[in-house]
Amino acid sequence: MKANAPRRRCHAVWLATLLISLLGCGNEPVDPSTVAEPAAAPAKVYQWKIITTWPKFLPGAGMSAENLAERLRVMSDGRLDIRVYGAGELVGAFEVFDAVSAGNAEMGHGAAYYWRGKMPIAPLFSAIPFGMTAQEVNAWLRYGGGLELWRELYAPFNVVPFAAGNTGVQMAGWFNEEINALEDLAGLKMRIPGLGGEVLERSGGVPVNIPGGEVFTALQTGVIDATEWVGPYNDLALGLYSAGRYYYYPGWHEPGTVLELIVNRQAFEALPADLQAMIATTAQAINDDTLSDYTARSVAALETLEREHGVLLRLLPAEVIGKLRQASLQVVAETAGEDELSQRIYKSYTGFLNGVRRYTDLTEKAYLEIR
Ligand code: CA
Fold first, then answer.
1. How far, in Å, are 6, 15, 23 from residue 9 at the CA level?
2. 77 alpha carbon to ligand 1 midpoint, in Å?
3. CA of residue 228 to ligand 1 center, whole Å
4. Cis, bond preceding 29 (omega within 30 deg of 0)
5. Contact yes or no for 227/285 (Cβ under 8 A)
6. pLDDT for 167-197, tens place per residue?
7. Ligand 1 mean position to 229 CA, how many Å?
8. Please, what sign has the CA dihedral across residues 270, 271, 277, 281?
9. Reported pTM
């Protein structure tokens, strides 16, 4: 027994030491992150500007850039700090592409058809008359080779494009007078950008291209007789109902307009890979989100336009649609021009459209007709 006594004492001391250490008594608390770790360098913050072709905070299109900047700020934990500028705040709506190309802003948000003067084929990456719907054009861009061609087209300008929003099928627009026959288009001064404008011209009208922020005044003061803009959600926000009484559909000229995010190439390439991936993924999320926003909010906006503002909805007559379709086929074919890249883009777009048209007829269209 006696021989065991020192051993028991030894055990008791050992147990007490163990308990003290388990209970944390008698020891200074140790933060594991400070043990043998070098101090982390503060994360580099990229302070960027995104300039847009939209009036500041315009519902839908204008909010795409705001939402994009906010999501990127949160996801990057503040490393991508992007300030949003509406049209005219830093540069005019139609100067966005050049400013991003020159690196005066790292990012821009707009639509490819605004750059038609620089690249006649560009409208194929936003919308063409009687072209693809949102669902179809997204399929072409992502899985039909469209995005690669778009990147190739913008590459000489030092600009990287991403699809970042879609309006869905737009409305044909606001008219001071009813359109009952083809003759009613004769001499009609209408704000309608891109290829739609050219089609209108061949159908007797006079296209005018002015930024969204100036449309209301132009229609109200009689500078123009008609205007298209987007659809109920945006058109209500701009107050177009008080400048034009008749609201025509469908938007033959913009059946699924892609909004674009453009990024200056050097700025993009200077980013670490994780931030580049965040931009690409966020653009895709915004592309989807904007279409949902337009669809959901246009329902309520249309009701407000009709009930509160007495707007009169009108379907474009078949004769007018027939003429516009015929002119559209010519105008779009001519847009392909002579150069090799434009030809490839035209063939890719029209090839995909011809294929997907039949599939859409068998699925979406057939379903919508029985619903
Ligand atoms: Ca439009």
1. 5, 10, 21
2. 36
3. 6
4. no
5. no
6. 999 999 999 999 999 999 999 999 998 899 9
7. 4
8. negative
9. 0.85
